[in-house]
Structures are given as structure tokens and as C-alpha cells.
Design brief:
Bound molecules: zinc ion
Structural class: alpha+beta
Shape: globular
Largest sheet: 15 strands, mixed
Strand content: 25-35%
Length: 336
């Protein structure tokens, strides 16, 4: 049997189509020492109202990013079928084993869900989760919103984002949904390597896709949780699933025009930033010093911006290793 045509082992414990609201799980069999016939239980809520499109809302794709789960656990216990035209599928913690452990990747198989797409039905636990989304949940959706933030090792200015796409009409629909989200920043996002990402799989299926980076540091603030809650409601209004227009919000449009927007650490050490998130930086400016830590009297390594703009993301912990993404600059542009 071609592995990709094998049935998924994941079983939803609730009906994904019938009218009403249901809270249940995606049950993924996982046999292990402490539970011979055990399962991974990924929480899911399905709210089905009258006629309309389907939105798939996800958080916890990475397990140490909290704005999405905070907004989606909240929405799941408040949303009623009467308020919904269409269907809302909510999975607040996609990579549930990683989320429950508070880690980016799964403690079961070290799987990074957002590098495991399109997934495999006969693969690792993480690959099986990816495969279920690819073949069973994403095909149901017209619009997909996947929440991210920086996790324990990065911090971002809060933005919603879409990517440049070969289909310009689809790209325009994605950026319209990003604008509706109404985060303080809206980003045309460039990826370091898009292979294996949920984003890429969803976009290749022709869906309207919005992602976010809403903060980081392995926690969430009152401000960024409020941005996430308002953003998800705005996207549902934009899709016509909730009544009324999106709440207007001022948003600065950002672009990452080249790979030079990413700056990576080239030595280990103590990082001392000269700029904070959101501040303007010019090309060639020293944004951070990396101090060697084993002895005193050594000059720090100056890390310069290769691209002017604002500081959009930075390494969060105070110590860095060679290869760590140290910071990201993005240019402020007119909205498309
Ligand atoms: Zn993430």
C-alpha cells in the first residue's frame, strides 16, 4: 500500500459536521510503557451554525507559544452555534504532547510539527498529527488561522502575516484576512526554509491562510492575548462566520524583502542588544554585541543590521550559540 493512501489512525471523538457545539478530542493511538493501548488526546471544539464557510483555527503548533491557545481555549468555551454562519473548528493545541510539556517540539519523538507537513499516516506521532490535518481537517476549511509567537527563544513585535504566493488572487485574499485580523503590525513574511511547514501545505491547497507572531519568550502578556482574542473574532467576521464588520485597528505594514533580514549569531556568548523591538535600525548599524563569557578583556563581536527597517524579532534568552537567529529586521511599507 502506498503509505500516503493508508487511512489515518486519528479518530475524532465528535461529529465534525452536525449542527451544534461539541467539545471532544482527536484521539491518536500511542502505545507506550505507561499505557499499553493508550492514546494522545488532542482537544477539539466544533461549532456548526447555519449556512456559511468553514474556519479552522489552530494554536500550539509549537508547544511553547501561548497567545493562540489562550485565545482559542477562551473562544471554544464561549462560541455558540446561534452566533455562527457556517462552521468553526478549533484546535487550541495542535501538537498537544509538546504543548502539555511546554516545549517547542514533542517530547515523544522530538517532532517539530511545523516542519513535519504534509506528514505520514505511518510515521511518528508528530507526523501522524500533520497527516490528519493535511488530509482530513484542512480540506474542510475555507480559511485557516494558525497562531504562533516566538516561544522560549525568540520575541517578536506582534504581527499577523501572509506569504507571497504564486496565485496572486489567493495572495490578495490572504492579505485581506491579515488586514482584518488587525494586529499592530501586518507582515509579508519570508521563511528561512518553508519545507515541511503547515503554512506551505495549507497554501498549496488554495486556502486563505493567516499566521501570526504575537510575542514570545515562552509566555504571553495581557496585551498580546488581547490582540489574539480580537484578531480571531475579526477574522471570523471577515469570513462572514460572525456577524458584523471586523473592529478597525491601526496596523503598520511590514515587509521582509530579502534573506538579509535574518541575522544569525556567529559566536557563542552574552548578547547585549542596542535596540529594542519596534525601534528603527539602519543598514550597517550595530544592533547587538556578543560578549565572550569565559574571560574578561576580550572585544565583543558586533552584529550589524544587513537591512534597515525596524527590529521585528530578536533572540530572547541572554546567551546565544553560533547559528541562533539573533534578530530580524523588516521594512515599513505601504499596505498592498
Ligand atoms: Zn511557532
Amino acid at each position: 500500500m502506498n503509505p500516503a493512501s493508508r487511512p489515518s489512525p486519528v479518530v475524532p471523538t465528535v461529529d465534525l459536521a452536525a449542527p451544534g457545539v461539541r467539545h471532544g478530542h482527536l484521539r491518536l493511538p500511542y502505545s507506550r510503557d505507561d499505557s499499553a493501548w493508550g492514546s494522545v488526546m488532542i482537544p477539539i471544539t466544533v461549532v456548526v451554525g447555519g449556512e456559511g464557510p468553514t474556519a479552522l483555527l489552530t494554536g500550539g503548533n509549537h508547544g511553547d507559544e501561548y497567545e493562540g491557545p489562550a485565545a482559542l481555549f477562551d473562544l471554544a468555551q464561549r462560541l455558540t452555534p446561534e452566533a455562527v454562519s457556517g462552521r468553526v473548528i478549533i484546535v487550541p493545541a495542535m501538537n498537544y504532547p509538546a504543548f502539555a510539556a511546554g516545549t517547542r517540539t514533542s517530547p515523544i519523538d522530538r517532532g517539530n510539527l511545523n516542519r513535519s507537513f504534509p506528514g505520514r499516516p505511518d510515521g511518528t506521532v508528530t507526523e501522524k498529527i500533520a497527516d490528519y490535518f493535511t488530509r482530513h481537517l484542512v480540506p474542510l476549511a475555507d480559511i485557516v488561522l494558525d497562531f504562533h509567537s516566538g516561544g522560549r527563544t525568540l520575541d517578536f513585535v506582534p504581527y499577523a502575516a501572509a506569504h507571497e504566493l504564486p496565485d496572486k488572487a489567493q495572495e490578495a485574499r490572504c492579505f485581506a484576512a491579515v488586514a482584518a485580523f488587525g494586529a499592530p503590525y501586518s507582515m509579508r513574511m519570508r521563511e528561512i526554509d518553508a519545507v515541511g511547514m503547515y503554512d506551505t501545505t495549507v497554501e498549496e491547497m488554495g486556502k486563505v491562510f493567516v499566521t501570526t507572531e504575537l510575542g514570545g519568550g515562552g509566555t504571553a502578556s495581557a496585551r498580546t492575548i488581547a490582540i489574539a482574542r480580537r484578531g480571531v473574532a475579526n477574522v471570523l467576521r471577515h469570513a462572514g462566520i460572525l456577524a458584523g464588520p471586523p473592529e478597525p485597528a491601526a496596523s503598520r505594514f511590514l515587509d521582509m524583502p530579502s534573506d538579509d533580514c535574518f541575522v544569525f549569531a556567529e559566536e557563542a556568548g552574552l548578547v547585549a542588544f542596542a535596540r529594542d523591538l519596534g525601534e528603527e535600525v539602519s543598514e550597517g548599524e550595530v544592533v547587538a554585541l556578543i560578549h565572550p563569557i569565559a574571560r574578561t578583556g576580550l572585544a565583543p563581536l558586533a552584529m550589524r543590521a544587513k537591512h534597515g527597517g525596524i527590529l521585528a524579532a530578536r533572540h530572547f534568552p541572554g546567551l546565544v550559540k553560533p547559528g541562533d537567529c539573533l534578530f530580524v529586521t523588516a521594512t515599513v511599507e505601504e499596505a498592498p
